[in-house]
């Protein structure tokens, strides 16, 4: 069986097999999703807002709930696309505005320029640089050790689960 999901940012309706996760819909449409933790429910980079049809998705898992709690842009209709499976019709998804930064070097290359879109932290979802603002060295400082954080997070999770 196939279900339809509407992606608001690109006004596109996408079809996927029932019980597939929302992440596969996003990837199918070539949307820029980092999936930093490899779809394990541990980062913010597949965070989406469900505008309609929350009842047509699988329920929140404990892991998803825990991750969503640290995302500063989390709203009552937030979900992690890699964890939410599509079980019914009527799902409409919207992506948070901005680009997730996944490594120190991503920002290093941009220092001194203005952000073309908001730059977001991949674990907390916090906006590091607003659109149109200058990317400074102090922003660089705030993402120092980011690669390490993500690796550590993955190591911890494999111990827990
Ligand atoms: S890809 Fe990391 S939480 Fe979904």
TrEMBL record:
One matching Pfam family, short form?
A: Fer2
- Family, as annotated: Belongs to the adrenodoxin/putidaredoxin family.
Keywords on this record?
Answer: 2Fe-2S, Iron, Iron-sulfur, Metal-binding
Query: What domain of life is recorded for the organism?
Result: Bacteria
Q: Where is the 2Fe-2S ferredoxin-type domain?
A: 3-99
Asked if Iron is a keyword of the record, the answer is: yes
Q: Which cofactor does it need?
A: [2Fe-2S] cluster
State the PANTHER family in the record.
FERREDOXIN-2, MITOCHONDRIAL (PTHR23426:SF65), FERREDOXIN/ADRENODOXIN (PTHR23426)
Among InterPro entries, the record links this protein to: 2Fe-2S_ferredoxin-like_sf, 2Fe-2S_ferredoxin-type, Adrenodoxin-like, Beta-grasp_dom_sf
Q: Which SUPFAM superfamilies does the UniProt entry name for this protein? A: 2Fe-2S ferredoxin-like (SSF54292)
Task: Read off the Gene3D superfamilies from this record.
Answer: 3.10.20.30
Protein name listed in UniProt:
(2Fe-2S)-binding protein
Please state the span of the N-terminal signal peptide per the UniProt entry.
none
